[in-house]
Amino acid sequence: VATDSFSNKNILGRGGFGKVYKGRLADGSLVAVKRLKEERTPGGELQFQTEVEMISMAVHRNLLRLRGFCMTPT
């Protein structure tokens, strides 16, 4: 699994929506994976979707490119 089952050793940071983990894809590419917090706030999923849309449009040498996202129940 890319994040080693969301191991604490792979935490890169924490934000308002959850934790960001370092991961590695099967092809060896390094990625950052944001995992939403378990507890949801009203409107939180919509805010997250807005954040994803903004990140997908951002182009900057200090930002990672968005490779995709998914939203599934835990």
From TrEMBL:
- Keywords assigned by UniProt? ATP-binding, Cell membrane, Kinase, Membrane, Nucleotide-binding, Serine/threonine-protein kinase, Transferase, Transmembrane, Transmembrane helix
Question: Membrane topology for this entry?
Answer: Single-pass membrane protein
Q: Does the keyword Manganese apply?
A: no
User: Reaction catalysed by this chain?
Assistant: L-threonyl-[protein] + ATP = O-phospho-L-threonyl-[protein] + ADP + H(+); L-seryl-[protein] + ATP = O-phospho-L-seryl-[protein] + ADP + H(+)
Kindly indicate whether the keyword Transmembrane belongs to this entry.
yes
> What InterPro entries would the database entry show?
Kinase-like_dom_sf (IPR011009), PERK1-13-like (IPR047117), Prot_kinase_dom (IPR000719), Protein_kinase_ATP_BS (IPR017441), Ser-Thr/Tyr_kinase_cat_dom (IPR001245)
Residue ranges of every copy of the Protein kinase domain listed in the record: 6-74
Q: What is this protein called?
A: non-specific serine/threonine protein kinase
| Protein species of origin | Garcinia mangostana (Mangosteen)
Species lineage, top-down? Eukaryota, Viridiplantae, Streptophyta, Embryophyta, Tracheophyta
- Point out the gene that encodes the protein: SERK
